[in-house]
Structures are given as C-alpha cells and as structure tokens.
C-alpha cells in the first residue's frame, strides 16, 4: 500500500525512500471510532476541504511522524499533529479518567464528603421543619390560652359591664341600681372637690379608678354581696374591698348629708 502524508505541503511518500528517512506513517484516527480526534487532525493538516475532510478519511490516510512535537509521533501529552498553518500547538486536556489515580481518588472522596454533607443538611432541614411546625402549633395554643385567660379573668369594671350591656339586659342598672347617666353625675358630684379618704395606700386600691370604686360600693349597697365575693369579682383583696366600701360610705354620708333631701318641717305644716 502506498503511504503518503496528508499534512500541509509535506511530500513524504513511501514510493520515494529518500523522502522517508526516519519517518513513520501514522494512520488517521477514524471518524467512526473517534470523530473529534479525526476532525482535529483534519484541521491540523490544513489542506483544502475538497482534498481532506472527515468524510474522506479512510485507512489510506496518514500523517508522517515529522509533524508531531515528539519525534516518534503522537504522545499522550501531544496526541495531534502540529497545525500546518503555524498556529500554536495545543496540549491535550487530560480527561478526568486520565488523571492520576490519586487525584481521581481525592475527587471521589470530595464527592462522597459533599454527598454526606448534603444528606446531613437535608436531615437538619427536615428537623428544623418539624421544629418550626411544632413551634407554630405551640404559638397558636399559647395565643388561644392567652385570649382565654384575658377574657376569663378580667376584673369586673364599669367598662366591662357597659361592653356587655344591652337595652334588654339593663346590666348596669342591675348592678349599680342606677342608670349610667345618673351614675356619671353622681360620680362627678362625689369627686368634684375631694375623693374618699382611703387610709392605707394599697397597691390594688391604687390601681382601681374612682369610677370602679363607686361601682363596687353601689353593688354592695344594692345586693349586699359579701367581701369575699366582691374581692373575687374585682380581683382585689377582701381588705381592699372593705377599705374602699367604708371610705366611700363615709364620703357619701358627708357629701349627700348636706343635700336637703327632706323639706323643712315648716313646709309640711299645710299638707
Ligand atoms: Zn508529512
């Protein structure tokens, strides 16, 4: 078989022994088995497309050993002919399979490590999700408890009665024996100049408004609820209920006693 070189302007030809001193003919990579390498060689040879292209590569196409970086022809580092157009020779990029076994091992180890970390992260995420759900549920139940608590344990007060009151219920009147308007007027009258003298400045008394203190007094007058009962309803101590009630009774006696409720006995004469 006649062997000729397909590279650039090379005239290596097996028919002329003088042209092939120390020359080896290296068969072209076949497009069927290694299309990419074949295409690189075609490009490196730099012949016109009509003369040399991937489709006309067969077992009769060769490149002589003169066109490789190493005198013996292709090596692992330089597997392709040098470009006939004079451009730079490219080293082959080592495929990961061609890397040293050690580096492959280290890559594999890194990969395993990453996978393990990913699994750990996933597990953490899963745990966090469960925890979040748990916290959300706890939050909801705490909200419910707090709503329950605040509505269940509100002390009795003017505001609270008014909030619950309706035209039919007449709650305010029931508790205090007065209509709210009258209650307000009475409170204004009783606190216009002075307020009841409560001797001991207890914390639970101080936190109670005059309005609610008067309410407590009126409720006791109207219904005669016990001290314990009123202490429970107003969330204060029995001692405080007693002190408030006594102070307001004294105060009312002083102020209301000055009002001439009864007409003078002289005006009754003619009745
Ligand atoms: Zn050649």
UniProtKB/TrEMBL annotation:
Residues 1-86 form the THAP-type domain. Keywords: DNA-binding, Metal-binding, Zinc, Zinc-finger. Residues 74-93 are annotated as: Disordered. It comes from the Eukaryota. This is THAP-type domain-containing protein.
């Amino acid at each position: 078989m006649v062997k000729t070189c397909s590279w650039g302007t090379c005239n290596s030809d097996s028919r002329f022994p003088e042209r092939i001193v120390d020359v080896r003919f290296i068969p072209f990579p076949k497009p069927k088995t290694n299309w990419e390498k074949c295409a690189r060689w075609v490009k490196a040879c730099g012949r016109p497309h009509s003369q040399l292209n991937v489709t006309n590569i067969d077992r009769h196409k060769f490149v002589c050993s003169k066109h490789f970086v190493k005198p013996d022809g292709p090596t692992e580092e330089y597997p392709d002919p040098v470009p006939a157009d004079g451009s730079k020779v490219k080293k082959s990029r080592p495929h990961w399979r061609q890397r040293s076994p050690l580096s492959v091992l280290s890559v594999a180890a890194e990969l395993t490590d990453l996978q393990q970390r990913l699994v750990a992260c996933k597990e953490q995420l899963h745990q966090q999700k469960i925890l979040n759900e748990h916290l959300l549920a706890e939050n909801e139940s705490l909200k419910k408890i707090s709503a329950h608590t605040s509505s269940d344990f509100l002390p009795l007060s003017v505001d609270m009665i008014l909030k619950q009151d309706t035209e039919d219920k007449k709650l305010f009147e029931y508790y205090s024996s007065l209509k709210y308007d009258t209650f307000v007027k009475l409170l204004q009258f009783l606190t216009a100049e002075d307020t009841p003298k409560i001797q001991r400045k207890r914390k639970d008394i101080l936190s109670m408004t005059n309005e609610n203190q008067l309410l407590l007094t009126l409720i006791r007058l109207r219904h005669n609820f016990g001290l314990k009962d009123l202490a429970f309803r107003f969330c204060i101590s029995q001692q405080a209920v007693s002190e408030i009630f006594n102070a307001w009774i004294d105060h009312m006696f002083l102020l209301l006693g000055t009002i001439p409720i009864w007409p003078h006995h002289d005006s009754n004469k003619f009745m």
